[in-house]
Amino acid sequence: MNAPVVPVPAAGVQAVRSTKAGTRRRWTPYLLLLPGLLWLGIFFIIPLASLLMQSLQTPVPNGLAGQFQQTWRFQNYIDTLSQPNFYNAMIRSFTYSFIATVLALLIAYPLAYAIALRAGRAKPLLLVLVVAPFFVSFILRTIAWKQVLGAEGPVVSTLQALHLVQQNFTIYPSSAAVIAGLTYNFLPFMTLPIFASLDRLDTRLVEAANDLYAGNLVAFRKVTLPLTMPGVVAGTLLTFIPASGDYINSELLGGSVNTTMIGKVIDSRFLVLSDYPAASVLSFTLMSIILAAVWLYVRKAGTEELV
Amino acid sequence: MTMKRWLSHSVFRIYAVFAVAYLLLPVGYTLAFSFNNGGRSNLVWHGFTFDAWTHLCDAPGVCESVQNSLLVGVLSTLIATVLGTMIAFALGRYLFVGRSFTNLLIFLPMATPEVVLGSSLLALFLNLGGGLLGFPGVLLAHVMFCISFVVVTVKARVATLDPKLEEAARDLYANELQTFWKVTFPLVLPGIASAALLAFALSFDDFIITYFNAGSNFQTFPVFVWTSNQRGIPPQANVIASLMFFVALAAVIIAQVNSARKAKALAK
Questions:
Q1: Is B36 helix (H, G, I), strand (E, B) or coil?
Q2: What CATH number did the domain enclosing A127 receive?
Q3: Where are the domains of chain B?
Q4: A91 close contact with B: CB closer than 8 A
């Protein structure tokens, strides 16, 4: 998503001619696309249709748990979404991931700036170190945060030793710990696209702004930031979307009813309670809200480069 | 002015050091606890030992789950890299009706939360009777979510190709196939390699989509870690994570050194 994508095909696009070779060539792109798009059609589009259908089913009368029939009951959406524990989990998910995205942006932008423009020869090393957390299992590094933030971990014991907090002070389980975990886990996703656009930035433009008596802050606001918006948009999407569906952080660092995110609700409705219609309603709603938000955001940010 | 400049450089450098330390702190914990003499619960430090490293497969389920993860990872990487590279060439090289539709279809899986991808596939598999849950379902799912990332990575590389190189090959009487296999493909190969690495990393570490479609008898490494979290994760899991960490780090560093050497050789 962060890659520079050209709206028209790159140089070297084959011209289509009405010769025999031209006819063959006209079919080449479709032959190249066919297997991959077929795969996406069968295992991405059809499942979404399947999910939509499942969300409109009702239990078979006198049937076993987990047996449903297709009754096209749209009322399922109203019934499910009006339950407080469901809509609260949905709102909580979006709130947590929104805060985590903002925090990640605030941490990542200066970091990406430092790596791209101020690191000198340390640039490749720093880039590797930013990606390094990806090489350790997502769940294990979240459990590591549990250890860091836990009652016997370094953070709490330092704060206690400095007498800044009371002896029974804990960080997790709490909403703050969940948000901290989300911020941490998706930070590389935020940093890399911003780094990519800062790395491409023509610094002479910033110098020109300075020559025209723009202070550093004005130059940043009027030149650097607008030119790196594609990176910011890609980074925020790559953070917000996975964060809003995630439930590893909320289960490991929250773990109470008050920190449950929507992913966990969908998980237990599907896999534990076999309440497929409600789970499908929630899943389909989550996707619709995110797609609508992404569409509005990309339009507002004015970057067509993403797709 | 120079003082101010020096100060601004230092501030950013110090910040970068702190930010990277923050990023690496949990990694350090995960590595350190592979040497913990903790027994069942590996959350609190009990003392240093090599036990987990020397008795890697002693913890029940660890090695099987790693085998499953490697199998799914290798197969889905192979399939997704081939399919994704073909799409990337179509998008990077041809003008055709349906381009923007294709772009949208590639973008959508990346803009859909994993829990939706996982649950929608489960809905399909359940409607089909549940027979695909387990290894086949997980493999089909992994290929699906890896394709888009391969397309984006390879397409970026195709877009930076210098068309003059291919023109030169044609001027030297290479036919279309020769031009492709002798000039274009080798030039795009580094992009395909990094796409494959990315696909493998995504597949190996995926939890949510896998968990939805694994059924009850098939465990990948992340699923193993998650399900053993209740009774305590054995330190062997940290050993596996450490091994993966060092292998991936080595791969990235070798790739970087290699490309730096090539750039130097070209500059001469």
A1: strand
A2: 1.10.3720.10
A3: 60-233
A4: no
In a domain, A167, yes or no: yes
Check if B74 contacts A (Cβ < 8 Å): no
Q: How confident is the model at residue B77 (pLDDT cuts 50, 70, 90)?
A: very high
pLDDT tens across A40-81, in order? 999 999 999 999 999 999 988 888 877 898 888 999 999 999
Assign a CATH topology to domain B60-233: MetI-like fold (1.10.3720)
Q: How close A247 comes to chain B (CA, Å)?
A: 9
| A217 contacts chain B (CB < 8 A) | no
ipTM of the predicted assembly exceeds 0.85: yes
Best A111, A140, A203 member to test B by mutation, with max B CBs in 10 Å, is A140
Number of H helices, E strands in chain A: 16, 2
CA distance B58 to chain A (A): 19
Using one digit for the tens of pLDDT, what is the confidence trace for B114-132?
A: 999 999 999 999 888 888 9
Contacts of residue A144, Cβ cutoff 8 Å, sequence gap at least 6: B25, B26, B27, B29, B30, B33
With beta carbons under 8 A apart, name residues in chain B contacting A14: 93-94
Please report whether residue A2 resides in a domain.
no
Q: Does A64 touch chain B (CB under 8 A)?
A: no
Domain count, chain A: 1
The CA distance from A109 to A191, in Å, is 7
CA B69 to CA B225: how far, in whole Å? 12
